[in-house]
Every structure is written in structure tokens, then in C-alpha cells.
Amino acid sequence: MTVHTPTAAPYRFSDIIADPSIRDRWEKVRRYFFLRESTYDMTNRCNIRCEGCYYYAGDKQFAAEQKEEAAWRRLMEAEKERGITFVVLAGAEPSLVPELCRVCFEVIPLGAIATNGLKPIPSEIDYQIHISVWGNDTTSKAIRNATAMLERQIANYQGDPRAVFVYTFTPDNIDEADSVVARLVEHNCTATFNMFSAPVGYDGPLRHTPASLHKTRGMMQHLLAAYPKTVLFSPYSIVAHTSEQGLHDLFGCSYPRMNPSTAIGLGRSFRQYRTDLHWDRRAACCVPDTDCPDCRHYAAGSAVVTARMYRHATDPATFSAWLDYVDTYLAVWVRGYDKGENLCQSLIDPPPHHPSVSEES
Amino acid sequence: MSNQQTIKRITEIIINELKLEDVTPETFDVDLDLVDEIGIDSMDLATIALVLRDEYGIRIDEDDYPKLTTVRIIAAYIDDKRSQGE
């Protein structure tokens, strides 16, 4: 596999989508751009405590818990009213409050739940369920203090169409991804990849280095080639998430925390609610308290890369790579969306990004 | 092409790209806010920008998207770019 660096070819958009395979994929993904997301911390409790956890960095953990279902229902109805169509239920551990997750599902039926997978979420809550995997059982015991974690996660979710196992690469678990993903595939579990992105001030061993990024890229390529039907990823996803530059420097982050614009896109609609049902524009981000220059987080990429369609419409290969990324994002986040075969097998360089004055300041 | 012609052509493009039903260039209010009143999203805006790029041979900077609030304003923006030879 080689790196393809497109030149500034004079392609018209109409030329690019004249290719039947590109047009079909464009029409397929375009139908989903009605999605408007926000995220919600559900409880300040968790049944494990992981090294480098985002939730327990910063002060989110100190927000009071709103436990009243009626209050959550009012919030969801207000969110629906302002145009939110997709909810992400996260911190600290949503499976501990299934009654609140159920209320959210009843009002806004599209969404995803981020969970450690140790406590099953009732099947009637038909959101996509993202189960965090940080390595094999030995590694999980060491950094999450949880015994037989993968075994318990698989027991809870194997064959569950809602479940996506999210393997988070750290510098220390790259080699073991091979055996972990093989085990997931063996148990009919779908997988995707995440990159550990350090919280602000984090100085521990999980922060990536250029060498670990390079090594991760090789492992992702190997796993995508070995399990193309069960690993939800694309070559362009690999490029975007393992580059030495983080997502913000590569693409320009569109979440309110880094994006001052309130005119269109995420800066206009996205909110990140804490457990007391309040939010703060200055902190609103898919993973608050992440050190932005180190951000390669899969959730951030979903919005940041996806929003940059215009920039990728330069030539068929680059646009195909972007379509693969969007196709991957939808398959990972949206229930019932089936990922197609990747259109672009090359490792395409991201288009140049020239930060505006407001982004630099 | 005069500003009125530009306005008419942009209106046709937007109606076509957004698949607006029961709307014609004659009935489309070119002073409606595309985001607040028509309800288009950032992806729609990017698509329209690409089609306009094809149509007029100009590049619309992503940073300029928030300024392009109505058809009339987009037409003035395009005419300005074209007059500068971009």
C-alpha cells in the first residue's frame, strides 16, 4: 500500500460524482446528513476506574446527578424541539442508569451509548452500543483494574447487532490488538478502532509517540486487510487517526470548544450536557478535557473529518477516501446502516488545512 | 451576467440540489435565511458551494460559509469574486 498524494487536478465536482461507484456511495451517505448530535453525561458513577479516563479528568465528575426521569424527558423533548436527532450517552457509565437511557431512547430514537460493557444494557434500548476495549484481559486488569474484562464484554454482547467493540490503541497494547480482534471476530463481534488521546495535563505512559503512531498504523492496516467485513474502518480512517498531527491540526476542529462560529454546523447545534443537565459552550466537545493537539479520538474524527466534504472534493481518489470515512462513521454510529466496501485502498494524504485567524487565536 | 441573472441561476441550483418541492424560482424568496428559514445544514451548504464552483469557476472559502446567508448575498459574493477575476 502506498501513499497517494493527489495533485491539484482541475476536477469539477460533477466529474467526480459521474463515476457510478462514487455517485452511488455519495447518494447513500448523503441521506444521513440530517443527523444533529449532542452528548450527555448520564451519571457520575462508574464500576471501574481506568488510567487516563476522560470523565474523571477535569471537573465534570463534580456535577450533581439528575436522577429524575421526568427531568430527563423534559430535556430530551427540548433537545428534539431544537433539532437534535442523534444522542450520544456517555460518562461516567450509562449502563448504571438504564432507566434514564430508556427515557432518552423513547424521545430521540437514534443514538449511541458509550459503555465499558460489564453490565448489559437492556435490548429494548435500541441505540448503537460502543464497548470500550483497551487491550487483552491482562492489560485491562493492569490499567482498568477489571478482571476477565474482554471475556465478560463478549459474553454480554456477542452477536448483539447494537454492539461495536471499540479497540483503543495505546502505545502499550498495539501488538495484542491482533489476538483481541481475532477473538472478537471469532465471537461474531463487530470492531472499530480508537486512539488514546491524552486529557489536558495527562503525563502518563498512554500518550502516543511518533513511533507508536507509526506502529499502530501498521497494525490497523493488517487488521483491516485480515477482517474487512467485521472491522469497521477504512484506509483513510487509518491516515486521519494515526498522523503525527492531531485531528485539530489536520482538519480544524468543529466542536464549540475550539470553534467560535455559531452560524452553521456543530458550532451552532452541538452541546455537551453534564449530569446536572447543564452545559458550557467553552467546554462543549465530544470528549471534554482532551488535550486538543493530541486529539485523535474516534468520536471527534466522526464529526471533524465528515464535516470537511468540500475540502476533499478535489479528485476522485480523495473524494472516495472521504466517502469511505463517512461510510465507516455511519456504520459505527447509526443502527441499521451497513458499511460498503471501501472505494479507496490507498493511503491518501489529508488535503491541506490553513487555519483561519479565529482558529489560530 | 447581471446580478438578477446570477440570483435566478443560484435559486435554480438551490432548488435542484435541496430537492425543494412545490417551489419555483419565481416563488422562492431570495432574502430568506438559508440556515434559519430554509433549514439547510452545513453539508448542504458545502454541496451548493461545490456546484457553484463548477458553475462559475470560483472557489468559495470555507471560512466564508457563515457569511452566505441568503441567495441575494451569495449572488453578490459571486459577482464580486468574478469581477476580481477569481
UniProtKB/TrEMBL annotation, chain A:
Domain of life: Bacteria
Name of the protein in its database record: Radical SAM protein
Source organism of the structure: Desulfofustis limnaeus
TrEMBL record, chain B:
Name of the protein in question: Carrier domain-containing protein
Residues of the Carrier domain: 1-82
Organism field: Desulfofustis limnaeus
Family annotation (InterPro entries): ACP-like_sf, PP-bd_ACP
Superkingdom assignment: Bacteria
Gene3D superfamilies tied to this protein: ACP-like (1.10.1200.10)
Pfam families assigned: PP-binding (PF00550)
Residues annotated as transmembrane: none
PROSITE patterns named among the record's database cross-references: CARRIER (PS50075)
